[in-house]
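tokens incoming
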């Protein structure tokens, strides 16, 4: 049938339309390029319908059956799709901005690249849905079922994920900000440390506990969670600290290596203080560094020809020696980038030769670096209580 013939039947009302569909179950309705803006189609049987180029702006599709429909519409913006059945529907690249999809059946639906900004998906069933690349800014996913959904490279700025089910979902967020992440287990979501945070977000205490504190520290820091809470998060959730916290001491001439090991340590969940990253504008440099060394568990000392000749590094090591005497425990963790420490006449550096010094002399070789880094991580592990 042509789209005009189908449209004539549809205009006779939902009751007539549904009766016709019941008598002709194998027909796929042709509603291509039709203007259905503001149409009242609640409870309509539109399964398998073709809506290419159709305009459903602010249409009422409440409780309609749109399963396996192809909804490459001109617009579904502001449409009422409450409790509608859109299971396995093709909604890729569709404008669903501000649409109401509360309690809708969206299992297996294809939302790739769709605009769901500020849409209402409270209580919606999105099990196995594909939302990759979708704009989800301001979207309300509270209590929605997102299990096994694909949420790769999505924008969740201002979104609400409170009490959403994200079990076995593929989540690799592109960006968040002012996002509410409540009552969700984040412990098995990979790539959180690479998420771009445009603004702070709200991370619920229930999320922290459901995740057993196993959330990348960088993700929490960038979301705006206070450092003091992150520091004690493990103990609050019944988890012992996995690694000692570190102050990284280095010469500015070893910046490339320092940047690399700092990034890798943070990725593994090691709390680090690193002057180029953590120094606040206006801080008195010496006071800030001195305070940070005294707060952190260990001083990770990067030894090289350049650092041995640095007065700043020498001052940091002297502070660490003082902390060792006060705490009666090892604070200095030296690693070397060359053999200068073995030959130096500098008294403070020569004192380190009776300690084990981590060997990163071949750090530019990937395999050698990984081997030395794994040993460092092992040595930074806290002892079980």
């Amino acid at each position: 049938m042509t789209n005009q013939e189908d449209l004539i039947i549809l205009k006779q009302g939902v009751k007539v339309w549904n009766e016709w569909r019941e008598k002709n179950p194998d027909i796929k309705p042709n509603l291509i390029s039709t203007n259905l803006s503001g149409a009242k189609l609640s409870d309509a049987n539109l399964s398998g319908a073709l809506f290419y180029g159709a305009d459903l702006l602010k249409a009422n599709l409440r409780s309609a059956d749109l399963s396996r429909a192809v909804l490459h519409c001109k617009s579904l913006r502001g449409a009422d799709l409450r409790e509608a059945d859109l299971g396995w529907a093709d909604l890729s690249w569709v404008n669903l901005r501000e649409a109401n999809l509360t309690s809708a059946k969206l299992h297996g639906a294809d939302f790739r690249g769709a605009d769901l900004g500020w849409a209402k998906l409270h209580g919606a069933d999105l099990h196995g849905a594909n939302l990759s690349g979708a704009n989800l800014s301001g979207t309300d996913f509270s209590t929605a079922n997102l299990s096994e959904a694909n949420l790769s490279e999505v924008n969740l700025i201002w979104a609400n994920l409170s009490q959403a089910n994200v079990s076995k979902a593929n989540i690799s967020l592109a960006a968040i900000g002012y996002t509410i992440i409540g009552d969700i287990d984040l412990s098995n979501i990979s790539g959180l440390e690479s998420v771009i945070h445009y603004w702070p977000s709200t991370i619920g205490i229930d999320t922290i506990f459901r995740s057993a504190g196993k959330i990348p520290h960088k993700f929490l820091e960038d979301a705006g969670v206070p450092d003091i809470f992150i520091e004690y998060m493990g103990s609050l959730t019944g988890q012992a600290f996995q690694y000692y916290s570190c102050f990284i001491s280095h010469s500015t001439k070893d910046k490339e290596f320092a940047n690399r090991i700092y990034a890798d340590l943070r990725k593994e969940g090691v709390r680090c203080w690193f002057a180029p990253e953590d120094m606040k504008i206006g801080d008195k440099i010496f006071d800030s560094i001195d305070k940070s060394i005294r707060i952190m568990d260990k001083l990770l000392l990067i030894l090289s020809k350049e650092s041995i000749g640095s007065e700043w590094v020498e001052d940091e090591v002297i502070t660490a020696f003082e902390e060792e005497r006060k705490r009666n425990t090892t604070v200095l963790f030296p690693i070397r980038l060359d053999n200068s420490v073995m030959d130096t006449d500098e008294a403070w550096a020569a004192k380190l030769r009776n300690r084990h010094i981590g060997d990163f002399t071949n750090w530019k070789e990937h395999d050698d670096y990984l081997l030395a880094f794994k040993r460092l991580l092992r040595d930074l592990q806290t002892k079980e209580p």
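note: The chain has 13 helices and eleven strands.
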